[in-house]
Design a protein that fits this description.
This protein is mainly alpha-helical. The protein is about 65% helix and about 0% strand.
Length: about 375
Amino acid sequence: MAKTFQESLIQFIVAMIIGWLIMFLVPANIFYQIYIPISFFGLFYVMALGAIGRGWPVAPPEGIWKPGMSKFVPGIYMTLLWAVLAIITMLIVTKGWPGIPLFPVLLNFGILLFMTTLWYALSWGAYPIAKKSGMVNLIGGAVIILVITGILWLLLANFKDTAWAGVPFDPKGLFQVDFMFGLAIWIIAWIQIFGLSMQNYPFYKLGEPVGQIVLTIVVVLLGYFSWTTTLNFMSPSVSFAAVAGSIIGWTLFHSVIFAYHPNAKYAQPVRGIYNLIIVAVMTAIWIPLLRCILQPVLAKATAAGLPFDISSVGVFYTLHVVAILLLVHNFFWLKAPLTPPAPPIGPEEIPQVQDPGPEDDKNVIKG
């Protein structure tokens, strides 16, 4: 376990450094006005290919990769497929339906896509097709997510009080888009609190689909309460970007990258309680840390005339750069050259104490 944690820490620190360099060196207009909108589709497809589709068509466990083959095979092919799918889908959304501008309007569609992706993958566990093949889950899951996102766009998004009020692509839905954006991020935070840190405890005990339905209601209500309550004490960007964004980041990092260290030895709900303590502590550390290290990055964005503050830059760094780098490295590159990631453990499963040996690499790669 010590070796696994050390390698994960190295991986995380390297991703932080590379992520900072990307944000600092890439021209601000290209990074924020082109990459960030497209990265919402990147987040969607890294989850669709790596988690929902279980690595199909090239990465393990359901792709063509087998032990003994180079990790560059899934790494290169899956990364190219991921990038191509993200760009194609972006073009459909901007040039086809709903035909919205890439920046900044697409960010509002993108956050609904991100929320729906995590809701389907984590809250619903890809129900009702989870037991089908990786190919069926990838294609079927992607269709389900995109259709639901389109419906939510029509029902929720309203461009009132913006430059796009009343334009043909304005759905005139329930929520003004700035409010909707923050609400969606807080719902995502609760989806991941339950879906990752708590592993959907206790809702999975209710069975399918009752547990998923109840959990959906709970995360929406908690997301709405958190968003509206925090607005009484802090600015919108601090609420959704700094606080909720950091919670999203650290529920992901602690569960997927650090494999619940050191709490995997407990079953839920004890594991989940300890997980959330770590998430709370790391969130409290992460917010001021980013305010310090991202000042040069913020200065570049400000000089380019972009309307982002340090909280917004921080959430882009956390979720759109560091998280994507780590997930692509884990899912597609099998964490090369480090020890491949172990399969995720169930809520009541206690993993073996010892680190996997050389021969165990064949059994621990699950994407």
